């Protein structure tokens, strides 16, 4: 006897498009590694609701002690409105979990899509280079919404354009542990999402390769690759390459719309180098706008604004892998 398949939550494109960026796999936590959570980046410090429903509970929780982060985080549990459940393709009574927002709502409050729940918070649950965001996951009607595990598979019904890049760009933003480069760029398409493409034209997601695994976005139809490295869509077992180096292998597909979906990627043991020096990795996501940039995580290397940086990948016997905690 086999278990019944889990319902996949299909997050509508109209919801995701209210945010500047999103990522499903750019995290070391199990829910992200398994394609069961999404991070939504508002860009303005306001934690807007990605759903409609009634607040069931608000809790304050402890988080890892980080010098750059608040000592606590917050969980907002929302009983989803029946109409929102129908739109997302899940049973009535499905529950949402929202993290990294300082709640300005209380149990019993009704919330609508786009409504402010409170300001985002710098949480010890994510790295210093990670921008403020709204973490979103879902639980079936009969599940305990306060446990850390048990979220439903999640798909994002927002196609992402793959954009090729040669790995070279200039620094346009500096932080304590990262820089943002001015590439890749794309022509037009402002308002839709785009992400860095693999050598075979697949838009990539995740922390490459400082987290053990990443993933791919569901992409817009593109011409097939001509270099023979991989097709413009990935199947389990396919090789994934970037900047001419094999960087990962596609595993089983994550949650997807209509049973499809983008696969997860197990990263190969590689080092990321910036101007020849090893750095922690590159942070990948889908973003709107003509210049969405790549974030290089480099806490031990200071690049200057305007400096030209070339990112390369090389096989490694001791790759950097950041875990939970």
Automatic annotation (TrEMBL):
<feature type="domain" description="DUF8155">
    <location>
        <begin position="161"/>
        <end position="313"/>
    </location>
</feature>
<dbReference type="Pfam" id="PF26482">
    <property type="entry name" value="DUF8155"/>
</dbReference>
<protein>
    <recommendedName>
        <fullName>Peptidase M23 domain-containing protein</fullName>
    </recommendedName>
</protein>
<dbReference type="InterPro" id="IPR058817">
    <property type="entry name" value="DUF8155_C"/>
</dbReference>
<dbReference type="Pfam" id="PF26483">
    <property type="entry name" value="DUF8155_C"/>
</dbReference>
<feature type="domain" description="DUF8155">
    <location>
        <begin position="11"/>
        <end position="155"/>
    </location>
</feature>
<dbReference type="InterPro" id="IPR058468">
    <property type="entry name" value="DUF8155_N"/>
</dbReference>
